[in-house]
Amino acid sequence: MGDLVQLTKTDGIAVMTIDNPPVNALSPGVPEGIAEAIDQINADAAVLAAVLIGAGRTFVSGADIKEFAKLRSGGARGTMDFPSVLGRIENCRKPVVMAIHGNALGGGLELAMAGHYRVAVASAQVGQPEVKLGIIPGAHGTQRLPRLAGVAKAVAMCAEGNLIPAAEALKFNIIDRIIEGDLLAGAVAFARAIAGKPAPKTSERNEKLGTAEENAPILAAARDAARKKQRGMMAPLAAIEAVEAATKLPFEEGCRLERKLFMECLASDQSKALIHVFFAEREAAKIPDVPRETPAIPVARAAVVGAGTMGGGIAMVFANAGIPVLLKEADQAALDRGLENIRKNYAGSVARGRFTQQFVDERLSMIRPTLGYEGFAQADIIVEAVFEGMELKKQVFAELDRAAKPGAILASNTSTLNIDEIASATSRPEFVLGTHFFSPANVTRLLEIVRGRATTKSVIATAMQLSKKLGKVGVLVGNCRGFVGNRMFHHYVRESVFVVEEGASVEAVDKALYDFGMAMGPLAVGDLAGLDVGWRIRKEYRHLEKPGVRHPIAGDRLCEMGRFGQKTGAGWYKYDEKRQATPDPEVAVLVRKWAAEAHIRQRAIGAEEIVERCVYALVNEGARVLEEGYALRAGDIDVIYLNGYGFPAYRGGPMWYADTVGLKKVYDRVRAFEAELGEIWTPAPLLKHLAETGGTFSEYTPGRNAIA
Ligand code: T1G
Fold first, then answer.
1. Distance (Å) from CA 190 to ligand 1 centroid
2. What's the structural domain count of the chain?
3. Would the pTM of this model clear 0.70, i.e. be above it?
C-alpha cells in the first residue's frame, strides 16, 4: 500500500490509516492503497471488522485538486478509478467503520459514505463543497447522501457546498455516533460491537428517497435558490439534477448520470476559474522574500483610532477574532456615535441569526472606548482610521509613535494616501504599513496589506498571519496611488461614466455589468459608497490631470448638485425612504445636456461593448500594476477583485477572465478603444507583449517587484 495507506490489525479489528499530509487528499496512491487494504481485509479470516481513519489533523479533505487538469484531459488513468474503490469498500465482506476528525469533504465524505458506519469527534465537519470549485460530487456523493440524510438535506449540501458540524451530521444520519475521547479507540470499540452482524450498504438504503410528489417542491425551491444565490453558476443546478436522479433512477444509473454531469462541469470555464481561485487565495499568502518561517510579532491586544464607519468596523473585526481592542475618538459625541453604530451592526447580526446575543455581548466587552491614549502602550498593533487627509494622518502617527510601545505595529487604513509619507511622521517606519480594509470592514473579506519602503519582513509576516486570524483574505500590495484595487477601479468607473455620457442609459450600464456577474453595477456602487468620495479625490488630484485628455464630467456635475447617492436620496438613481433605487429621468436629460456641452458624440452602445469598456479598463490597468511590480502576481489581483469588488468568482477575476477571453482579442479591443478614445486606452506594455507572444497573465511572474 506504499506509505500513503497503512494497515494494522489488532484482536480481529483492522485499521486502515491514510497518511497524505497536509489534508489527506485522495492523491494518486491513496485510492490504490485503500483498495489493496480492503483486499487484505477480505482475505484475512481473523479480521472481523475494519476502521478507516486519517493520520494527522484530518480525515480526507477530498480529491487532489491539483490532479484535475489531468482528469480533465483524461490523463488521470494513472490513478485508480476512485469511484470503483468505493464499491469495493461497500462490498467488503467485513463491516467498515469510518472514523472522522477534522474534515470529511468532497471525496472524503463520499469515501465515508461508502463505509457501512461513520463515527466522528464533535469537532469534525463534513460536506460536499465541490460546487465551490465549479464541479459536483463525482464519486457517488449525490447518490449516497440523499440515502442517508434525505433529499432536502442532500440537495442543500450538494448545491450550496457548505460544511456541517458533526452534531448536525448525526441529526441527519450522515454519521452514526459522536465519539467522546480518543477517536481511534472509540471507532475500534464501535467496530467490535458491530462485527459479525449484517452491515448496511448505503447504496441500498432507499427509505429516505421520498416520492416524486414530496421531492418536486424541494427540488424546485433548490433551483430557485441556486438561480438567486449562485447567479450564473452551472454547478449548483447540475448538483440538483444529480440528486434528483438519485430519487428516480437505480443507484448505478444515477451514478452514471452524476459522472456525466461531473465531467461536463469539470470541463467548464467556470470550474477552471474557481479552481484557479482556490489556489490563488492560498498563493496570495506566500510572499517570495518573506518565507513562511519568518518570525511574526504576537498580536494579543489591538487599538483603533477613529470610530467612524471604518474604525468601528475594524474594531469589530478584532473583537470578533477574540482580540481585545481599544477604540479611540477625539470627542465623546463621536465616540458615542461610533459605539451606537457597532451595537446596531451586532444587533443586525443577531436578528439575522449570524451571531448569538451571548457572542455579541462577549465581543462588545472586548471593545474598550476611550478619548485618550491610555492603554495604547499595551497594544501590539494600532490601526489608524481617521479622515482621509495626509496632514491629519501624519499628526495622528506622530502621536501614536509616542504613545505606542517599542515594537508595536502602526497601521493606516488609508485607501489612497502614501504609506511612506505617513511613516515619515514616526521614528519607526519599519513598523508602519497599510491595512486597507474594505467597507463594511466587519463583512468584506479583502484586506490589502500595503508594504512601505521601510516595512520589515517580520511586520509583513505578522500582518499576513493576522489577516487569516481576522477572517480576512490578506493580499500584499505596493504603495502606489490607490494601491491595487482602487487604482484599477478608477478606470472601471471612468469607463462606466464615459459610456453613459456617450449615450447608454444609467440602468443599461449597470444591467450589463450585473448580467456579466458583478454583484452590483458600477453606478449603483457609486451611489452606495457616496459619489462625493471619488469627487473629493478627483478634486485633490485635479492638478495632475493632463490637459486635453477627456475626463468624466457627469459624476462631478451630480455632486455639484448635491446628489451624492443613497445618503442624499439621489445620485445616478433616486431613492425612496427604504433606499430602493429607481431610474431618474431628470438625470437622463441632464447627462444629455452635459454631453452636448462637451461635444461628446452620441450613439447606441450595446451591453457587450459596455462590459468590454469597463472590464478591459480593469485588465489594462491591472497589467500596468503587474509590470510596475505593485502586485506579486496576476492571481493576487484576481483575489482582490473577487473579495473586495464583487467580481464573479466563476470568471476567476479580471486577469484570469482576460486570459480566458484570450489576450490577443483583449489587446485588439484595447487598441480599438485607443483609436476611438485616445491615450487613456494606450495598451499596457505587458498586455501588448503577452498578446504578441501568446502569453497569459497567470503564467507571468514580475521580474522586478516594487513590493519585494
Ligand atoms: N487538493 C489538493 N490540495 C489541497 C486540497 C485538495 N483537496 N485541500 C487543501 N489543499 C492544500 C492547499 O492548497 C494548501 O496547500 C494546503 O493543502 C493547506 O490547505 C472526488 C471531485 C481542507 C478546509 O474542496 O477547503 O473531492 O498552500 O491552507 O485552511 O467527488 O483546504 O500549503 O501548498 O486550505 O486548514 C473537494 C478543499 C475536492 C476541500 C483545510 N474538497 N480544501 O483548510 O488549509 S473535489 C475540497 C479546503 C472532490 C470528489 C470531488 C481546505 C480545508 P499549500 P489550507 P486550511
1. 29
2. 3
3. yes
